[in-house]
Specification:
By secondary structure, the protein is mostly helical. The chain has one domain. It contains ten helices and four strands. The chain has a four-stranded mixed beta sheet with strand order 1-2-4-3, with helices on both faces. A hairpin with a 6-residue loop joins strand 3 and strand 4.
């Protein structure tokens, strides 16, 4: 598989979650996003601006509602995946949730369109998993179970909340940088050239860090799926098969060659994900869910 990512040093690729780094470091990436926002605010208005930015972010997090899963499903034109039509899939979800220690079963939907994929949205008892029609009809039961385990790992870890936080941080950084550039251009302040360049660059830096957080959560969800399935083999098989399906179904685009560079991508490459799964040692299985009391499988 061709890797379109720039040839960055290995430690930077691991930090930006282009390559597996062994453990999740989403917290470190989010701390960097906060640091970028704080530095931008400090250069613009000192401590008072930093405090104002912090208050604004807190208010945005408190007042910004997550998109309702029902509304999102309507936007995506998804239809319910009914238990009477697909009892095996509902049983898979129930057993996986039971093993993960979740107190509820997610609602299931079918996504229209080409390509094999799945998404998770919502939080707590309102979690929703949507599976594409191609995935539903082209994956084996074991591959489907692996994809469901991956999505349930997202739900267990509250990844939708994490992505909401990173989105707010990015938007706050973008707003302050734009405000700063407006002052530089239309105000009386005559900043040095490096500051203008920096304010122009910080939204991109924050965006790249946000994408890295998303990729990090994908690695973590793969790890969680491996734990739920007692090993990575089924997840590896599912990733390879999904890649084959998407190459065939989206080949007229053509698939991969039109996708964005890895730095802008929301998922690590299939090669990197399989590399991370194969690096898991048997002793690390079950560690992803170790903080939750799980019933016996």
């Amino acid at each position: 598989m061709t890797n379109n990512s720039p040839q960055l040093p290995a430690f930077i690729q691991r930090f930006l979650a282009l390559e597996p780094g062994g453990i999740s470091h989403a917290g470190g990436l989010m701390a960097c996003m906060i640091g970028v926002l704080a530095a931008c605010a400090w250069m613009l208005g000192g401590i008072s601006m930093m405090i104002s930015a912090g208050i604004a972010v807190a208010l945005m997090l408190a007042l910004t509602p997550m998109i309702s899963p029902e509304i999102l499903m309507k936007i995506l034109r998804a239809r319910p995946l009914l238990a009477r039509d697909h009892p095996a899939i509902h049983e898979m979800v129930h057993l996986l949730c039971e093993r993960a220690g979740l107190g509820h079963d997610p609602k299931l939907f079918i996504l229209p369109g080409k390509g094999a994929n799945a998404i998770t949205t919502g939080t707590d008892d309102n979690t929703t998993i949507a599976i594409s029609d191609d995935a539903l009809h082209n994956l084996s039961p074991r591959q489907m179970r692996a994809i469901l385990a991956h999505e349930i790992a997202h739900a267990w870890h509250g990844d939708t909340r994490i992505l909401l936080i990173t989105d707010v941080l990015y938007r706050a950084t973008w707003t302050i940088a734009l405000f700063g550039l407006a002052i530089f251009i239309f105000g009386d302040f005559n900043p040095p050239a490096w500051m203008v360049v920096l304010f122009g660059a910080v939204p991109t830096i924050s965006f790249l860090l946000q994408r890295a957080v998303i990729r990090d959560r994908e690695f973590a969800a793969d790890h969680g799926a491996s734990d739920l399935l007692n090993g990575p083999e089924d997840m590896i098989d599912a990733l390879l098969h999904i890649d084959q399906i998407n190459r065939k179904r989206l080949g007229v685009i053509p698939y991969r060659s039109t996708q964005p560079p890895s730095l802008l991508d929301t998922h690590p490459s299939v090669t990197a994900r399989i590399k991370a799964l194969r690096a898991l040692k048997p002793g690390t299985w079950q560690k992803f869910f170790e903080n939750r009391n799980m019933p016996n499988p």
